[in-house]
Amino acid sequence: MRAAHRLIIGATVCMTLxxxxxxxxxxxxxxxxxxxxxxxxxxxxxxxxGRTVLYKxxxxxxxxxxIKVGDPLREVELTQTDxxxxxxxxxxxxxxxRIISVVPSLDTKVCEQQTHYLSEKNKGLDKMVELVTVSIxxxxxxxxxxxxxxxxxxxxxxxxRGAEFGKTYGLFLKTPHILARTVMVIDAHNxxxxxxxxxxxxxLPDMDEAFAVAKSLIAAS
Length: 221
Hints:
Layout: H1 3-17, E1 52-55, E2 58-63, E3 77-80, E4 85-87, E5 98-102, H2 109-120, E6 130-135, H3 139-149, E7 154-158, H4 164-169, E8 172-173, E9 178-179, E10 182-186, E11 192-197, H5 207-220
Parallel strand pairs: 5-6, 6-7
Antiparallel strand pairs: 1-2, 2-8, 3-4, 3-7, 5-10, 8-9, 10-11
């Protein structure tokens, strides 16, 4: 995907949501990522039909069958950056603890920071667990993001084909056709052990809490 095309996609999402600080994908001049002071959400909303998340106080309706802590990971196909399909239950981290970070669009500052945090602030967990980012961005956009951000320790999976992941997990926002901001921790037996869906779309999930849960699961195994 050409850079101009990628930016058009990102700009469309930004204009639809009115997200501030969108545009180019940030600091891609080879230097270290510059973290911003973005609010970390407290608490979590519930997934699924009839639930909502907010953007600056305005509700956005969730669609699909909601998932919760204690549920098994549900099989659904996603697209890898090489365009091949893989089920979320069968990623390379199968049989290990996995942290799945779900973002609305990598072309927004909050999503960008969430993904960098997952990659860079996991306190060495990337040597023991699989780190996964899911978004509706195209595989081409995800691959470019990973390359330009110098992120090699995260598995990027795209839900662009029909938002089946979002619908299967109750995280799909029909309008504006994106996924709710989420982090979940999956144990070695494909069971959801931690789930946070940020009540406010413009806030970050508590990644440190997810890391702590993942570490406790490793210690208990």
